[in-house]
Write a structure and sequence with these properties.
Strand content: 15-25%
Largest sheet: 8 strands, parallel, barrel
Number of strands: 21
CATH architecture of the largest domain: Alpha-Beta Barrel
Number of domains: 2
Number of helices: 15
Distance between the termini: 50 Å
Strand order of the largest sheet: 11-12-14-15-17-19-20-21
CATH class of the largest domain: Alpha Beta
Length: 523
């Protein structure tokens, strides 16, 4: 992406349009650049020392507040001193863009006036003016370019500092030292507002890099993930409250820096993709369609099942396996828990081959009398992989004295939350993309107290999966009950049964759900 450069001999209207376009391009540039054109054009102008940059004090910072405050925060974080400072009164896009161009040519930070320009009181305006003067003085400039600001008033407030309104009267300057190539500024994509443009200009003048993000979460933007992976910044500044609190942004950046992306792109599961899964256990046809064929044929069948949904979905459709890892069984077994835990070594080839083929894998737990968390821990080595999630099948959760197929099982939400906390912690510890946790349900009694489900973890996407079978009208009633009872902040899935649905819905009928589906399974 080019630097902002002067317009040459083009007509003023074209120069302004070009500058505005270039200013907007600043926010979408993934690499910073520093203008090499000298600021002063007068003959024999004095060459001043370069601006002195500094590393931001914090590893991660969010710059928020009024536009003038954001601009000042960016300049303060990046510059220890600057021989030239550019000050502009925001409000007119052409003037703002021209000031940004002048600042880049002078390797100077760009500050904004505030207070009364934002409709505040006289006291607010006076306070903003005082803060602006203090920020300018702290940079120890020898010259200030005032754009749309009363020169005489500003000069009177800054004794000993030359104030000009013509960029040609600025002295020549050199590039800021040292260039902050390991500092990164994150901005929201789109046409930048005054605060963003000022921060971007100061960052580029300091030699920092600029990366744009489609929303406040860099994990959701494949291009931003790739740029962060390449940049490996030491410090990150972000413009605007849309990036969330600093601690949240820091954890998201840590994940994005790994560069690992999920099938379909990005590191956030939903709503950016639709999973279409085959359900079952390898080598066990009675447990679902996944066991009807060997591994290569299962991958091909999963892709075949997903294919019709591509024309129906606005997001990438990702084929998936939902593998029953612990299988409920009629006998108590050596542990007395009525659940057979498939050895990790048997599942690993299925997980490895499927994820290598661009699929997502979910490990399903039918716990019997075993604890859900204890069973989940058995598969930690697989869950440490980025494209592997977990499913809890409460239908097969037994209470003392109960046996499989004699009743519908149930689980307390407190036990589910213990798995939520563990899985979220595992995901954060290994800086993994967001991980899926599926909760199977076709009766509300299967998860008691579900409104107290812990949905606060940014590392997880929790999905309620409606597993009812039978006639479409009956399944729709179950769907309505499940979705109505679910807590806020979750996603939803649906299962189609090849044999037990009468009739089974086709892909278009399956997709006709409200809320929209994020996962579809076939059994």
């Amino acid at each position: 992406m080019p630097c902002l450069m002067p317009g040459g001999n083009r007509p003023r209207a074209l120069r302004v349009a070009a500058v505005l376009a270039a200013s907007a391009a600043v926010a979408v540039s993934t690499l910073s650049c520093t203008a090499a054109v000298p600021a002063g054009r007068e003959q024999g102008a004095q060459v001043l020392p370069a601006a002195h940059t500094r590393q931001p004090a914090a590893v991660t910072s969010v710059l928020a507040g009024a536009p003038d405050q954001v601009a000042q925060s960016a300049a303060s974080a990046l510059f220890a001193s600057a021989p030239v400072v550019v000050v502009v009164r925001p409000g007119q896009p052409a003037r703002l863009a021209a000031a940004a161009t002048s600042a880049l040519r002078a390797h100077a930070p760009l500050l904004l006036t505030g207070g009364g320009t934002n409709g505040g009181t006289a006291a607010t305006a006076a306070s903003a003016d005082a803060m602006l003067r203090a920020r300018i003085s702290a940079l120890h400039p020898r010259a200030v370019l005032a754009a749309g600001v009363a020169r005489k008033v500003l000069a009177a407030q800054l004794p000993g500092i030359r104030v000009v309104t013509d960029p040609a009267k600025l002295p020549r300057t050199k590039a800021a030292m040292p260039a902050l190539s390991h500092v990164l500024l994150l901005v929201r994509s789109g046409t930048p507002d005054a605060a963003t443009l000022a921060a971007v200009t100061s960052a580029r003048a300091a030699g920092a890099r600029v990366i744009s993000v489609h929303n406040g979460d860099p994990r959701g933007d494949p291009a931003a993930i790739a740029a962060l992976r390449a940049a490996q910044p030491r410090q990150v500044l972000a413009v605007g409250t849309g990036f969330g609190p600093t601690s949240l942004l820091a954890s998201r950046i840590a994940v994005a820096r790994t560069g690992v992306q999920l099938p379909g792109g990005g590191q956030v599961l939903f709503p950016g993709r639709l999973l279409v899964a085959l359900y079952g256990h390898p080598g066990a046809p009675a447990l679902g369609v996944l066991g009807h064929q060997k591994l290569p044929a299962s991958i091909a069948r999963a892709r075949q099942a997903a294919a019709p949904y591509r024309a129906l979905s606005r997001v990438p459709v990702v084929p998936a396996f939902e593998i029953i890892a612990t299988v409920a069984e009629a006998s108590p077994g050596p542990d007395g828990d009525y659940s057979y835990a498939t050895p990790v070594a048997e599942l690993r080839p299925w997980v490895r081959r499927a994820t290598a083929a661009g699929m997502y894998v979910i490990l399903d737990l039918q716990p019997g009398r075993a604890g859900l968390l204890a069973q989940a821990r058995k598969y930690q080595s697989l869950l440490e992989l980025p494209g592997v999630g977990l499913a809890l099948d409460a239908e097969w959760k037994l209470q003392p004295g109960q046996r499989p197929l004699q009743q519908i099982g149930s689980v307390r939400v407190s036990e589910v939350n213990s798995v939520v906390r563990w899985l979220a912690g595992l995901t954060a510890r290994y800086r993994l993309p967001q991980k899926l946790l599926v909760l199977h349900q076709f009766r509300l009694s299967m998860i008691s107290g579900e409104r107290q489900l812990d949905t606060s973890h940014d590392d997880l996407a929790i999905l309620f999966h409606m597993d009812g079978q039978g006639a479409p009208a009956v399944k729709q009633q179950t769907w309505a009950a499940v979705t109505r009872a679910a807590p806020a902040g979750v996603f939803f899935g649906w299962k189609d049964f090849y044999v037990k649905d009468h009739p089974m819905l086709d892909p278009r009928q399956t997709m006709a759900r409200t809320p929209k589906l994020s996962m579809i399974s076939y059994q």
